[in-house]
Amino acid sequence: MKIAEIEAKSIIVASKLPDTDYVANPYTGCQFGCLYCYATFMGRFVDEPRSNWGNYVYVKKNAVELAKKQLASWPESKNHASILLSSVTDPYHGVEQKYRLTRGILDALVEYNYQGLISVLTKSPLVLRDIDLLQQLNSEVGLTITTTDDKLSRFLEVTAPLASRRLDTLKQLVEKGIPTYAFVGPLLPHFRYQPQLLDDLFHGIADTGTKDIYVEHINLPSYVKERMWKELRHESEQIQEIYGGSKTQKHRDILTGLVNNLVAKYGLQIRLGGTIYHEDLKKKNEQKGDATSLDQIKSLIERAIAGNEVIRITYQDFQGNITIRDISPFEWTDFDEKKVRAFCHLRQEERSFSVLNIQKAEYIGSTKGHEQNS
Ligand code: SF4
Q1: Whole-model pTM?
Q2: 283, 318, 338 — which closes off a domain?
Q3: pLDDT of residue 357
Q4: Ligand 1, pocket-test mutation among 37, 87, 93, 224, most atoms within 8 A of CB
Q5: CA 13 to chain centre
Q6: Which of 75, 321, 348, 354 would bridge with 82, disulfide CB 3.0–4.6 Å?
């Protein structure tokens, strides 16, 4: 395992993900080396080929210092934005034990009395070490769990802590009063043919006391497929066919149906309105006028005020309902995130909400003759 120390230029950066405003990745590379990992593209920033994913970690040794600097200069309005640790690395993989960068960033957020939602997503029980800090923040912790089968977990998630340890970690977090969620992604293709195994997974998650869940269909762009297929070629023809056939809409529809039944059976709350598919989210983001991050919404609102135009915001409320509201520029003197939240009747104390739940913001025309429909 190659471990190198580097200096980063920034650490908390705007996110394009549907469920967070900012992301912080204290490392480039990830020791866990999951076969399905989409973050292998990060190698291009440190001159590492995709095929080497899992064999290197570049440690952003100034990550904590940068976080402090950024937080010190952020305006009050940003103090409520949500931040995810992490999106293209695991914040608690092996080297975190030594470098403690994730801990350092959490510590900085505590120091700055940060109010926004801090979401930590990991596969590692090492997150339990930082419960003292998480308890002082508006935080939640997600554990990625794709199977209850430890053997399969070892195969797909190479050196990540076993699935059973992750379920146990979720349970311990619940017991300590930390809000939790499970991230079931990728939704493994064989569940379509062995639904009992998917039932076991949802049952296992529900048993930890965790209620919230994200579910994501497998996404197989060519670079992920290449890495995965290299390993799968040693598996049975049947397995290869199952994975090969997982890109169809029919496959996703069947799995989505199974997931919906299990969510109801175990009383879970599925986030983002249902099982998501990366390609669909990508298309949505690419639509002209759409906005998913606070910065994008801010710029839309500023332009709408200047041009006297109405913005239609589509968002998912904390009960999971999709709602549309039209906002005229009369209601804004300037951009204020709290106003967005208040307008949508979404409260800061609702942990399941953050502005990221806004799915679309678009111009719908001039205010002339416009009746607000909410
Ligand atoms: S833990 Fe996450 S970031 Fe790390 S290799 Fe696995 S999928 Fe990629």
Answers
A1: 0.77
A2: 283
A3: 47
A4: 37
A5: 14
A6: 354
